[in-house]
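Extended Data, record PX domain-containing protein
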Amino acid sequence: MDNFEDENPFETDVDRVPSETSSTSKVNISEPSSPRNPARTLSSTSPTLSRPFPSSGTNRHPQSTYKSDFCCGRDQWLHSGEDLEILITDAQKTSLNSNTPYITYIIRAGNAEARHRYSEFESLRSSLVKLYPTIIIPPIPSKQTIGDYATKQAKAKEDTAMIARRKRMLQTFLNRIARHPILSNEHVFHRFLDGEVSWTEVLHSPPLSLLPKNTLKAPSHNPTDQSAASAYAALPSPSATHPLRHPDQRSVDSEIFTNKFANHLSGPMEKVTRRTLKRWSENAQDYSELGAALNGYSLNESGALAAAMEKTGQAVDTTYMSTTRLLQELEQNFSEPLHEYAQFAVIIKKLLSYRHQKHVQYEMTQDALENKRELLEEYEKSEREAKRLDEALSKGRVNGLRSPGSPAEGSEGQSQPQNQPQDEAEEPGSTYLPPHPGPNPYKRRAPGMGFLNALSYTLHGMMDVDPETARRSSISKTRETISQLEDALHLSAQDLKYSSSTIQADLDRFQRQKVADLREMTISMARIHRDWCKKNLEAWQAAKKEIEKIPDHPNKRSPSPEQRTVPGPSGLRRDSTATVNGR
């Protein structure tokens, strides 16, 4: 684990202020990117607040010191400077505006109350992913699997444990957004918390209605900006697996570390945690059956033995209840956060993939621009050669007119005929065409070829374009394409620089959040086991007192002087050999 932590490319020191561009990208840009929305700039440091899990760590945004203008009441409440928390108070089954029943979650943010179903939480997150392609958007609980629907069928959506788990994880999702230095300022999130706003209207109104279908062909700092749509349309859409010629080393390190982090979480840690919880659950079930058996057996006895058996059964029942409680707390405070961070690893992979695609997009645009410039150079070279040839031909025709008896110098071996009329000879740009010999009487056409020849002649007439006009049109189109690619390359370079710096800054923030959350998780696990042991110790100490009231076996040997002076580790102990042999 030491080597694993040493390879961490993210910033974990809170006191260290990251540079403006955390990436080591070799993109040479004269002008820095200037995002239109200043709220999208990540702060370097943030104060640490003490609160239960999920720990805010160091990712709590600065409060009213930096924010004085508020877009709505929810925004003012979120940045009021108090230690606030969004709560999901209940989950109710309803059929409002739907033909089938569904579960709606009641959200309380201050004095506002909103009701949303799971699909609306999902649409909120997908909208934030499109609005902020360079920010780590917190995950929401996973959907039900096909196996859950197959085993529970129609009752899958009414699973009490699943609903309770979704309540907790959706509440964590909302609070993570509320504590984010950028996402907490998004008005779409504020409207989601406002119960008086229709979420359907929010999804079909700006800025969500202005989002492009492909975020790679939109500005990274503001995907809804359509002022440079034509330039972004010229950018390619590379795949995530396209190799880079000049990869950014820090991005490569981040990808390697994220893959290791994801493999650790989704591999050994989650598997062992699920197996441990399963065994605790089986153990609790065994304790439940054992306690019932002991309590039933105590009814058949009398005296001190019955009281001791009953007390032992009660201790076993206490162990069962404390184990059940331990299971619930481990699920809430360790297993669910662990699964959440496994989802975070997948999200970070997609974020780094977006940055990779932006870098590939920049390189592909560079290649396309170079190819178009080479093509333009070839077109211009052909144009120069054509002009030179036209000048030579014109010069040759002029010389031919001056000396009709001699061959023209620039006509490439052709001469003017002597009997050519004067008006044809003076016509500029005309060339000598020999008279058509007429149809060959000995050549017979194949039947049906007349129609094909006529069709071919028509098609050739349609496709016959003046080469000079086509060449000049190609030059004009190529220059226009080069101009668009130059604008697109400049925008792509700015996007790459902004994406690299913003993604790296948010990864550094996430690393500090991860350290704080893992600390809370391990402390919670220690506290849970301590409370479990403490409660069981009290129950079994009470059972021990009742067991000691049972009289000794009548055939028990009297203790020797050494046994009287040297008590055992648990005080007076019954001699099991006397019970076996004393008849």
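Summary. The mean pLDDT is 79.
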